[in-house]
Amino acid sequence: MIAYLLHKLPEAEREAFEDRWMEDSELYGELQDAEAELLDAYANGALPAGDCELVTKYLLSSPVQERKLLFARTLRAALPAHVRPASERQTRAWRSIAAAGIILLAIATSWLAWQNTALHRRLAGVSNFARPPAPAVYVAEIPSGTTNRSTTQSLAEVRVPAGAQMLRLDLQLDPGDETRVFSATVGQEGRLVWDEEPIHAERRPFGFVVPVWVPAAVLTPGQYQIKLSAGGTLIDYYRFRLRAVR
Amino acid sequence: MSDSTDKTTGATRRWELTREALDGLLQTLGTDRNAAGRRYELLRRKLIDLFAWQRSETPEELADETINRLARRLIQGEPIEKIESYALGIARMLLKETARRREQRTVALREIQILQPGAAEATDAEATEMLDAVERCLEALPESSRTLIARYYSGERAALARDLGLSLNAVRTRALRIRRKLYQCVTGRNSQ
Question: pLDDT 10s digit of each residue in chain B, 192 long?
Fold first, then answer.
């Protein structure tokens, strides 16, 4: 089941397993349990690095899945650190009552202070890791439709989330350009904001892109133009609009 | 029944699930309305998970579109013996359609998950809401269930199994059942 969830199964086996659990509700329940345990382990930092990456890639692509992870993390934070068996709790309770005369007030005061601190700590702990490890890098694909070569130009919209420290702009390349060595300048209203070289094209599922890394700190909302060149020759311009950071 | 074309704009209007079509689907799922409703919800849940596990960014929308298409086939008189299998077939077609659309999209925003200690992204409001919901749902559990799940997640699994006189696997099954109930409570799906 883990192999299915982490896309480690060959395609034919994957489809065959899907056929089974769609028909078999008990098997579906077991699959949900397997997912829950995976997310619990992920939330606890208990997964090997390879599986951690696969969980991030395959199980956290939507708000529905992020909510499952948030639940996993919150449940861990909300449960008491240690719960004693009932019989032991009763024995300790009697002992506390016997000593209560002197220390009761101190205990009550400390307990109230601890509750307050614990609640704040739990809340801070949950919000600190309430989502998957935060996207320090945010990726935007700038399509070739925004370039001068396109017959119908459009403006790519980019929204960088709060907390992202780097923006990686993937500039889509036309087939045939991928072997060149590139340089890129990022400008806003004629002002140079960032430049980078040398850059090599990278393969993506849909084709090749030129990745341009820009620190989020140098960017402000507005319209940008990226000039992509290779060996001194202009390849193309790419345009995007950066919306206010959310 | 088919998608209609707007005579002014030429745009195709997608077929929407009508009351009649929904009734037809529920009747196919079962003669008892309540049981049919539960089966419908389970089917929808399975489809949402199917799409989510296939990296869809909008699994709920795709699940609803799958059910729309399923209901439409039924109301058009198509004989369907195994509803869940048929729905899976529709879902797989939808996955191919969305994969093609994703390649043609004009803007794509993806996140690279780079582990950085201390970096936070979820809002405090979301975290608070979830914590409130989890605590409320934990309180609603019987004490024995609350104790079991607390001890299970604190790492006392072997001791817990000994105390309950159960195998580790049986303890795991119970803990996961409680966890599932908690999640249903938190997400407001208590009836399932």
Answer: 444 544 444 444 456 677 888 888 888 888 888 899 999 999 999 999 999 999 888 899 899 999 999 998 988 888 888 999 999 999 999 998 887 665 544 333 333 333 333 334 455 677 888 999 999 999 999 999 999 999 999 888 999 999 999 999 999 999 999 999 999 999 986 544
Domains observed in chain A: 2-78 (no CATH), 137-242 (2.60.40)
Distance of alpha carbon A151 from its chain centroid, rounded?
35
What's this model's pTM, rounded to 2 decimal places? Answer: 0.58
The ipTM assigned to this model is 0.80
CB contact under 8 A, A138 and B112: yes
B79-138 residues touching A, CB cutoff 8 A: 82, 84-85, 87-88, 92, 103, 105-116, 118-124, 126-128, 130-131, 134-135, 138
Contact of B85 with A19, CB cutoff 8 Å: yes
Please provide the CATH number assigned to the domain covering B124-186: 1.10.10.10
Q: Which amino acid is at B163?
A: D
Peptide bond between residue A198 and the one before it cis (omega within 30 degrees of 0): yes
Task: Residue A120: count other Cβ atoms within 10 Å of its Cβ.
Answer: 10
Contact yes or no for B153/A74 (Cβ under 8 A): no
Q: Do residues A171 and A212 touch, judged by C-beta distance below 8 A? A: yes
Count of CB pairs separated by less than 8 Å, A with B = 182
